[in-house]
Amino acid sequence: MALDRVQRRSVVKALAAAGLLGTAGCLGDDGNGNGNGGNGNGGNGGNGNGNGGNGNGGNGNGNDSGNGNGGNGNDSGNGNGNGGASDLVTHEQFGPDDGTPLTFWAQPGSTPDPNEQPGSEVNAEGFRPAYEQWVEENPDYRINVEYQTDLEQMQTLLLQTAATGDAPDVSEVDSFWIPNHWNNLRPVTDVIEDEEDWYPFVRDIVQPEDEWLAVWRNTDCRGLYYRTDVIDEYADGEAPATWDELIEVGQAIADGEDMAAFMYNGGRWEATTFDNLAYFWGQGGELVDSEGAPILGEGDNYDYLLNVFEFFAETIETGITPGRVANIDDYDLLAEEALNDDLAMFLGGSWQINTNLRAELGDEADELWDVAPIPMPESDMAATGTGGWTYGVFTDDDDLVEPAMNFAGVWTDPEIMAHYCEQLGQLPTKPSVYEESDYFAEDYYMQIWSDLLESGVARPGFPIYRTISAEWQVAAGRVITGEMAPQEAIDNMIDNINAEYDG
User: Fold this and answer.
1) Mean pLDDT to the nearest integer, 119-134
2) Which helix (H) or strand (E) holds 200?
3) Other beta carbons less than 10 A from residue 195's beta carbon
4) Residue among 396, 354, 350 at smallest CA distance from 374
5) Under DSSP, is residue 153 helix (H, G, I), strand (E, B) or coil?
């Protein structure tokens, strides 16, 4: 059961007094975070695992959705010892030299070697236990790692090599790419075990029909961050749940305080689309049909889209949102407004409580900031955008299917997932982790994110989405700046999307 804010504050104070609160890490690269903290000391022999404090991580800007949570220290980290699986896990290879080889494509931040790149200690600590477990359970095989440094190129190469039968045996796959590979991926259903222990948005993407086509290791989401003292004064402590409530309390704040009431991503970048799509999805809107064709102008979708852009205009016209949101093209810019006491509420990512607020404010962040579901047109609506990474099996060699599937399957282990997500500041994709992991079960904010993930929605990974996103960003900017009325902006947006698809 999640703690309320008063209970949480008592717990936070008690933990702080006992010196048990972890601190947030800093932003990393390629979707993986870096941080500082105590390193575990390795055991002697065996698999080389010992006990020690883990560092604190943060997740940087990745291709899938943008950012990740700042990781938190714990007291049961895995250190590196001598012998066993630990010695067989290196930057470029997992397993013995004489093992049957499999190829694995990964991001640079997924290395198990803490010395491979600056600040990679936290990343390595997050990934290493999973790699070691696979080595122990598959002693006759080895994985040769091929790191992909350009994510857009990686996406293109995966499509090209899958089409020619030359794809890696197993690969990290952005969840956003999965629909493009529904016909290329080998089923991994055998390693899924409890199919109900995954959030609905996960199943929607990786289980398009009967078979599971990937293992989704981590995610993130978005919510309404709000200043507790301000909302206590102007809304009796109740965060706005609807657009009307947001406008009403926002106007009161704008009139009574020297700060902006509400801000969001409104610049020319992906988050302006992804964050605000929640308003469209919450109404029941769909961007594309089952074949990937755009349907924004069809039926109710048009009305839902118009509602969103009229809401953008209303936030500006009522004065609850300053026009400078048209220049917000980084989550850190929203955090700066918040940390400078210039902002009462903002639409932000799950990682920001750790990487931004706790990192700067320490324990005060838990007192000063809370999170609520994204306000919707009606109180019975809910949605939040979700991203994250998966593991997919592409091998054409039937003899390699089992070890490749086992590699993906390691990430279905709740302990492996919990360790990785805590270490790198990500959100688990299995609800059970939020109940069984001490950190995720006891951290107030993690319980909020767990609830919000029940209404999570992933972006459709069809090619036309790139055009949809780009046109959404342009249309949003035109409405926010007053260059176009909402209906004119979305009509122009839809025409451009359809022209690109038909062309």
Assistant:
1) 94
2) helix 200-206
3) 10
4) 350
5) helix
Per-residue CA distances from 375 to 16, 254, 371 (Å): 32, 18, 11
CA–CA distance, 66 with 274 (Å, rounded to integer)? 10
Give the per-residue pLDDT at 282.
99
Confidence of residue 28 (pLDDT cuts 50, 70, 90): very low
How far apart (Å, rounded) are the C-alpha atoms in residues 186 and 184? 7
Over 70: is that where the pLDDT of 40 sits?
no
- pLDDT tens digits along 230-287: 999 999 999 999 999 999 999 999 999 999 999 999 999 999 999 999 999 999 999 9
- 68/215 Cα distance (integer angstroms): 19
CA 99 – CA 79 distance, rounded (Å): 25
- Smallest CA-to-CA distance from 382 within 431, 465, 448 is with 448
Give pLDDT, residue 83.
53
* 32, pLDDT greater than 50: no
> How far is the C-alpha of 482 from the C-alpha of 317, rounded, in Å?
9
Query: From CA 503, how far away is CA 463, in angstroms rounded?
Result: 13
What are 359's two structure tokens? 């990192």
pLDDT at 23: 29
- Contacts of residue 222, defined as CB under 8 A and 6 or more positions apart, other chains included, come to 274, 275, 278, 347, 348, 349, 350, 374, 384, 385
Distance CA 343, CA 321 (A): 10
Cβ contacts of residue 144 below 8 Å, gap of 6+? 92, 93, 101, 102, 103, 104
What tokens were used for 500?
A: 């690109």
Question: Based on C-alpha coordinates, what's the Rg of the chain?
Answer: 23
pLDDT at 425 over 80: yes
Give the SS3 label for residue 345.
strand
